[in-house]
Amino acid sequence: MHASYLFPGQGSQRIGMGRDLRDAYPDLVAPIFETADDILGFELSRLCWEGPEDRLERTDITQPAVFLAGFAAYRVLAETLPPPLVVAGHSLGEYTALVAAGVLDWTDALALVRRRGMLMAGVNESTPGAMAAALGLPAAEVERICAAVRAETAEIVEVANYNSADQTVVSGSVPGVAEFSARALAPADPAVKVKRIKVGAPFHSSMMAAVEAEFAADLARVRFADPVLPIIANVTARPVCTGADAREALRVQLAGSVRWSETLTTVLGYGIDAFLEVGPGRVLTGLCKRAYPEVACYSAGEARRIEAIVGAANSGADAELRAS
Fold it and tell me: N or C: less crowded end of the chain, CB within 10 Å?
């Protein structure tokens, strides 16, 4: 298996994430959760495993929780499979990818994502925002509608995520996203849908620029090493070559668009034959399957799935897992 590891971001969280990994690999995974609890000063492990859901969905909690669950899954894979050919992460997931690429120490990454979540949540408290996924519209049409809304209403609405050919996420002020939704649905095309996303802030929009300088100072206090394996920055869809480049990509990513579709294209250029989504949920697995049905796509966020992947890879029968 010549794999790329892809790490999910916010929206993949679920109660119970990481608990089965702790149970299946206690010596490897339990210390990770214990250390995280000590670093953060509260029981993030309990929130991951037991909730409550309303607290787990708070941006300042969700971000370190998703990171931690993804890192735990990665540690298990790192002990059982050869290194991936290339790594990437969707938004928040880029922090886990940077750990996998040797750029960040995992404890530094945990502290950064906790800080990132707190800053993003603070923006929403002062200037509430919203996000929505446009399905069935070309990205160019989404951009056109966003531009028209901004020009005619002075409200903020911008492309946050270029997820796939038929899925683009917008972000901005509550009135701006509402107006975008109304205009996108106005032609009454049954193939077009707009779904509001339950999030804690207008991620990846210019509204995040208010905390960019503050977060840049946080990034500057952390050591960023040069990558030991290829990592693709989602804000540029290009490889990160140095630690300084990685730090800058995280700064720009705060208010910049996630170019996920382009990122996958770049990842394919490394000669991979499999995508592994390393972390909770199966959002990225679904996007990969729709974009590249000829490439094997595996979800590797649960112990049973990881064990199946490892067993099949070791036996040379990994193609059997395509539909798992």
Answer: C
